[in-house]
């Protein structure tokens, strides 16, 4: 078992390998994390782990009424996540490689990172200025029939986007807009479809690419059927162009 210890950045969203993650970092615990990452030479990866929050607050209460009226002030690396932070997070997350970490004049940070590798959360350490975690790297297995399943998901995803765009075929113009590699496609679709966090989390932690694609095919067919019967459903920004994997 290959394990690694990395800074931990919990979010109310799911990060997938290959997808870009922009962050506006303003809380002190995460500003401390970014200052530490900046000590890493530019030619080396500046890595941290992203996990989706199961139970807790992405932004810790910093004053009465912030971020909600019932909140009480809280501070520290585990603020908002209870006495045992590991229970507040989903068990599988994704390593992020920060290509850009830019400090603003007010001490906040603008960060642009890319998801790289899935990891399983083993333990969380709240003894420092920010959370760190012991993580087990999860390999991406292809599974059976991933190629044919990818072709089916691609067709279903195109139909889904067309329905969201009001059948005006402005979302995808050619096969070159989406990757052919099954695992890359599976993560792109998982990120692009409008789903709740538990469903996206289920796709992230699928045992292999084929299982993820099989699940996505069912989801896309169901979502497309719903949109077909609800023509007034508002379209997502994702229909305005293909999702970038930069």
TrEMBL record:
SMART domains: LON. Transmembrane segments: none annotated. Pfam families: LON_substr_bdg (PF02190). Residues 6-224 form the Lon N-terminal domain. SUPFAM superfamilies: PUA domain-like. This is LON peptidase substrate-binding domain-containing protein. It comes from Streptomyces pseudovenezuelae. The lineage of its organism: Bacteria, Bacillati, Actinomycetota, Actinomycetes, Kitasatosporales.
């Amino acid at each position: 078992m290959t394990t690694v210890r990395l800074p931990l950045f919990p979010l109310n969203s799911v990060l997938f390998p290959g997808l870009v993650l922009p962050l506006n970092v303003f809380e002190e615990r995460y500003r401390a994390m970014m200052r530490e990452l900046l000590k890493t030479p530019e030619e080396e990866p500046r890595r941290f782990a992203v996990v989706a929050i199961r139970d807790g607050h992405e932004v810790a209460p910093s004053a009465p009424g912030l971020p909600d009226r019932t909140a009480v002030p809280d501070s520290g690396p585990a603020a908002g996540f209870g006495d045992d932070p590991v229970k507040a997070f989903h068990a599988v997350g994704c390593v992020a490689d920060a290509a850009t970490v830019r400090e603003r004049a007010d001490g906040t940070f603008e960060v642009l990172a890319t998801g790289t590798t899935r990891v399983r959360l083993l333990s969380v350490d709240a003894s420092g200025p920010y959370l760190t975690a012991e993580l087990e790297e999860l390999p991406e297995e292809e599974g059976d029939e991933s190629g044919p399943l990818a072709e089916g998901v691609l067709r279903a995803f195109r139909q889904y986007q067309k329905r969201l765009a009001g059948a005006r075929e402005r979302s995808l113009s050619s096969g070159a807009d989406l990757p052919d590699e099954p695992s890359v496609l599976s993560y792109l679709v998982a990120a692009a479809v409008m789903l709740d966090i538990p469903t996206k989390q289920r796709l992230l932690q699928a045992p292999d690419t084929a299982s993820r694609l099989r699940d996505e095919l069912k989801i896309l067919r169901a979502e497309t059927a719903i949109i077909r019967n609800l023509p007034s459903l508002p379209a997502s920004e994702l229909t305005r162009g293909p999702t970038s994997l930069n």
